[in-house]
Every structure is written in structure tokens, then in C-alpha cells.
Amino acid sequence: MLISDSIPLLWLCWFVLSVAVLVFGYFAISFLPRLPRWLITGGVAGLLWMPAFFSVPGPQSELGYSGWAPSLVVTAVGFLQHNGGQIFLGGILMAIGAVLGMLVTFFIGRRGRHDKDDDDRSGSARKRGNSDDRDSARRRRESAPARREPSLGR
Length: 154
What we know:
Distance between the termini: 46 Å
Number of helices: 5
Number of strands: 2
Strand content: 5-15%
Strand order of the largest sheet: 1-2
């Protein structure tokens, strides 16, 4: 049952709250251009969602408890318990998560942005007769107003 198991409930609550933090944080930094906003949001997502292994010692008669939890929680509990090993492991995993999150969002952000004018990889395979079409399309794009990003409160 979900309520009796604390780790699945922790992950569920953590996921819901972290999505709210990411969405509100993304809108809070709307003054930045799109790519830095994506990179910051991806770094924070990596910090929040990177898992880490933990173990909590139990009483003498029991073995204790171990499992996976968000590395931010593992680091915070290690800090409260003065456990340098958990702080180090959680901190390293948070840094790895931030870098991975930034890399993923960088490639997602770059994937959708292709310049049609510079996309001439098949050079000689293209017909030379469509240069008039490209020139007219380029003139239409230059005469059109610049695309503006939607933002809240402006």
C-alpha cells in the first residue's frame, strides 16, 4: 500500500513538489533568454531528481533501513546527522545530476532550433532552380515582425 511505504510516498510527493518548483522557477526567471532559462531549469531538475543510496542504522536488535532517496534529501539528512560520507556522496551525485540535467536541456533546446538557410548539407543534390523560392522566403521572413516569447505579467 502506498501510504504504509514511506519511500514511494516520499518519491511521489517529491516529484509533485519538484515539478511545481521547476514550473514556477522557470517563469520566475523569464527575464533571461530561452537557452539560459532551460539550462538553469535543467540544472535544478538534475539536483532535485538525482537518486542516492542511503542507510539508516537501526537499534541493536534490528538491521536498520536502506534504500534510494533524492540526493538532496540524503545530503540534508547526512548534514543533520553529522555523517560526512552521506554529505559527500549526496553532494557528488547532486553535482552529477545538475550537469546531466543541463546537458539534457541543452540538447533538447538545440534540437528544435535549426536554421533553414544554413541547412545546406546536401549541397549539390539540391536543385539549383529553387534559389528564387529561397530568396522570396527569406524576404518574407525578414519583413515579418520578430517572434516574441510569451511571458506572464507583461
